[in-house]
């Protein structure tokens, strides 16, 4: 019983140190209510709202102690005789979470007094006392360790250039064991492969169980009405910060706006290179403001201004030709419809081939088919002198000589 | 660390020396042994001749400070203009080719007869001479592969010339631009047009290469008393006039001078023929006035119709490379001869006897003249009854004079030939022994397809150029 009291005392002492600022490296994550699917980043509610009265209740409870310390003594004695750790002390122990400082000075003093009286009344042997001292020493060491861990970290010394004196908390020096790998374990690459498969399977599970649920969110397509002639495009980077996150793009066709022909033409001229003559769609974007809403508002105002200008009759820009030089219409050759091998076409081609075959046959039979090789061969096969014609003049000249 | 051993032989010199007999070692001249070297020792040359002079090198001889002399060509270089003459020579017959018999001779009627489409006809020698004088044959055409000049009467020929001869016969003025893809036979159609002109007794004037007139190749001189200042090509016009005279001598010698030509530097009597007027001078400086006088004479009523053709139309639709005395570039239309043609083509000149003014475009050697392209596009659309395409509003360099020159012309688009025409042409080639293969439907179809569905020049390339020298 005395043992229990001594240990309780030591525990209380370790807990009664000055309250330190609790450090938290990562803020405690509040669990959001699960939302179905949203492209807007989740935001926290205001902090004042978040603070619920239940958090403060333990402090309040300790503050409102029903009885004073003197009143407690009689009960305490009674319970000690029963050789049981009194309920109050148990309550105290429960209340004194070692990482939570005790609430107030007066309370701490009351606790100390309570323990002292308890100690005085009990009769310990020398052995027990020595044991208690050892325990106390151990607790002191533990205490020092805890206080060091929860203390405000030391700042890096400015004197050392590389900060060599500072311990590197990220470096795991002790955990790395240079021992040989155990024979019964697979290699780290295999572990990696297993991890990879686990990942695959995780996504497969998602695909099998969660993706089908997305179909519940489908909505029927409703074509935009005549009033909804502007089409805005926003971009989300899934909660990541991005310079273009606030960009808004608007697309519209001058045809859809409430303008007549000449006004539409003027609007196209005003739009310049933003108007695509192939699709007849104008496209403008804005990212000069920080928020999407601001950018969208700017674009909306701009379109309104353009429409107002297009309707302005003072100058209809009739002397300025519509400029489409900014857009090159790409001609993508397609397989001609006439070239498709339909049954009719096949028949036609077959007829043509048949006809040409017949023509060739007819020509061959008539000896009219011309073969270049054959012609050349025939020419060379003829006797060399066959084509030679003796000029008549030569004969004429020869004859008088012969007569002479 | 340097080793004591030689790197190459891995032998230890120390041991070798030790093993070598001491008597031999002592014979060695101490100077011949290199103390330490990494290069392999070379033996002296075996022959004991004393021819070795200078430094001996093992590898290639290093020559510094001198340029390497290749084998000098000691033959005489071609004289000035010889290379061009060889390049531009026109060979109209080849005795190595086989003679093709049984082909009809060209007549005026054949060129307009739809029944003659697909026939190969031979050119009569008189016509060949005339065409040659008028420089209708081109060095790019393959006349030199065949025994004698023959040509194919194609559908385009009949279509074009049928319309032309009919309208000229009605004393109308035909103003046409022959256009078409590259090597589709535009110049050949121009030649056939000239042949029709010669055979129909027209006075044929031909400018074979328009770029000769604008690229500052020939001399030019300002014509006095002209506003805006015009320029003539004295030598070129003199040659052209001689060509006109010799090509059309038969007609011109029958026509008699009607007008008074008192301002001419040479005396032309009233009763002399136009042929004598054309050959009145051999002085280049008098060429333009006399040519102009001849032109005026030809425009008189009662004369034979005129055929004026020009090849390479895009060259004359730009600013020429000639410069005026004030060193400004001269517009091509300010050159007198081109002006004459352009005014005739644009319809400014009135021809009482009918005329055919034909400009042939060229695609192989031509500039991109946007104004001409647009004007021809507009003319073609107008002819087809389609909406006329507008000019590009943002192109500032349109030449108004080009649009003026091509106002109201007809555009004749030369198409590719049909398989029937290709077959008769290939049969002629095979009969000449140039195309050494059996000409049946299969080979014709193959070559015709290879030639981009019957582009004539490509057909020649696909089948003839195997044997071209």
Description of the structure:
The complex is a heterodimer of chains A (404) and B (469). In chain A, strand 3 and strand 4 form a beta hairpin. Chain A starts with a helix and ends with a helix. Among the domains of chain A are: 105 residues, no CATH class; 81 residues, Double Stranded RNA Binding Domain. Chain A is elongated and about 160 Å long. With 404 residues, chain A is mainly alpha-helical. Chain A contains 13 helices and four strands. Chain A has a four-stranded antiparallel sheet. In chain B, 34% of the residues lie in helices and 11% in strands. In chain B, the strands form four sheets. A five-stranded parallel sheet of chain B has the order 4-7-10-3-11, sandwiched between helices. In chain B, strands 1-2 form a two-stranded antiparallel sheet. In chain B, strands 5-6 form a two-stranded antiparallel ribbon. In chain B, a hairpin with a 6-residue loop joins strand 5 and strand 6. Chain B is globular. The chains are: A mainly alpha (404), B alpha/beta (469).
Task: Provide the spatial order of strands within the biggest beta sheet of chain A.
Answer: 1-2-4-3
Head-to-tail CA distance between termini of chain A: 176 Å
Question: What is the makeup of the main sheet of chain A?
Answer: 4 strands, antiparallel
What value does the average pLDDT of chain A take?
77
Low-confidence stretches of chain B: 24-31
Largest sheet of chain B: 5 strands, parallel
The share of residues in extended strands of chain A comes to: under 5%
Largest interface: A-B, 18 and 18 residues
